[in-house]
Specification:
single chain, 395 residues, alpha/beta, Nucleotidyltransferase, domain 5, 2 domains, six-stranded mixed β-sheet, 17 helices, 16% strand, globular
Length: 395
């Protein structure tokens, strides 16, 4: 069973091809194109590379093409893609303007190119469909809630990978099995021992933090849209609801221009005075005494600690804190800042282990730390492929 995972951006196409034959999980091929202007040609070139590499002889060998889709109206989970699902995605374009349009276009192009191959979507909101309702509600009028104004949560594939892998590393096969089968049985798998409490920190160009209890999410720092939560590279993160109308009226901006600034000039870029939206540039400037760059780092760390603390309190502690994604896996200085002065909560880093860990699985907590601190490189594409396989097998 060969499953192609296509990651679609507004000007990019990236892919990974997995082979699940004989109960294995083998990555056969990966690649991608940037600055794409002709998507039909990019898809053809993708298939050509797969054939040239000997990964497939033709698209008829593909059991499915899977997509890490973002959000759709009244639809979540892992589903077969059809016009009904695409229409539901179109209805939510305003919530994910940088993500939904290229996925909708690309999915239709894949459908035209290979009509006999099943197309499957795993929505980023899927991991939070079992979260407690009080953790996912906004205090809005009921009519607003009925329209979908609620916390949906994102980065679901990444946090689900962490739920499974952290349980395995912590010797909790029962919890790992529960997380693995979550979209099949809704979390009905038995947990045999004490609760496993994990706080997953997906820190990168877009960042979010999730509390995970026994392999199931209890909430996510991202809310109704990817615009919320922690400061992102150039997206604002959490913002008082009154800020937008205030700025529109006071500065004389159109609503569209204000939204553009929030999504293109906010976040770390805004905090650093427009210096950069790249954490590497910001850290470099901060070490040279740039006060605005240092402020951007301090706000990012403060917001991460706020969300970690919230889930720590909600779960009555934590057995592990996991760092993943580009910043979480590679920026030892930020991991140290986030975990600083938390010894009274049982969180103590081993400085040497932390400083030597980059993009590899490792335990970076000290021997006397009651809470384990782990670095686990995420693998969102593998999660999409696994769930696509499960959907095919169960339908």
């Amino acid at each position: 069973m060969k499953i192609l995972i296509a990651n679609l951006g507004s000007t990019s196409l990236k892919w990974r091809l997995f082979d699940f034959s004989n109960n294995a999980e083998k990555l056969l091929h990966k690649g991608g194109f940037e600055r794409v202007t002709d998507y039909p040609k990019a898809i053809e070139d993708c298939l050509a590379q797969l054939k040239e590499a000997g990964a497939i002889t033709g698209e008829q060998e593909l059991a499915a093409v899977g997509f890490k889709t973002i959000i759709a109206k009244n639809i979540t989970g892992c589903v077969r893609l059809d016009e009904k699902v695409l229409a539901a995605m179109e209805a939510c374009t305003g919530l994910a303007p940088a993500h939904n349009p290229p996925y909708i276009t690309g999915i239709r192009l894949f459908a035209n190119r290979m009509p006999g191959v099943p197309l499957v979507a795993l929505f980023e909101t899927a991991f939070y469909q079992f979260a407690p309702e009080p953790m996912m509600r906004y205090a809005v009028p009921e009519a607003w809630h009925d329209l979908g104004v609620r916390r949906w949560g994102f980065h679901g594939a990444s946090h689900k990978f962490i739920a499974e892998r952290s349980a395995q590393l912590l010797g909790r096969g029962d919890v790992a099995a529960r997380a693995e089968n979550l979209y099949v049985n809704g979390g009905a798998s038995t947990v045999k021992n004490s609760p496993l409490r994990v706080i997953s920190c997906h820190l990168g160009g877009s960042s979010s933090i999730t509390g995970i209890l026994n392999g199931v999410a209890i909430g996510n720092s991202l809310g109704m849209s990817p615009q919320s939560g922690l400061p992102h590279n150039n997206r604002v993160g959490d913002l008082d609801a009154e800020a937008l109308p205030y700025v529109v009226k006071t500065l004389g901006l159109t609503l569209e221009e204000a939204q553009r600034q929030l999504s293109k000039e906010g976040g770390l870029k805004g905090l650093s005075g427009g210096l950069s939206n790249d954490i590497r540039d910001i850290q470099d400037a901060a070490t040279k005494g740039n006060a605005k760059a240092q402020l951007a780092l301090d706000v990012f760390v403060s917001e991460a600690r706020r969300w970690i603390g919230g889930y720590f309190f909600q779960m009555n502690g934590a057995d592990a804190i996991v760092f993943t994604a580009g910043i979480g896996e590679n920026r030892a200085e930020l991991r140290a800042a986030i975990c600083a002065n938390l010894d009274q909560l049982g969180i103590v880093l081993d400085s040497a282990k932390n400083n030597s860990t980059h993009a590899t699985e490792a335990e970076i907590s000290a021997a006397n730390s009651r809470v384990k601190v782990l670095v686990i490189p995420t693998n969102e594409e593998l999660v999409v492929a696994r769930e696509t396989k499960r959907l095919l097998e169960n339908n």
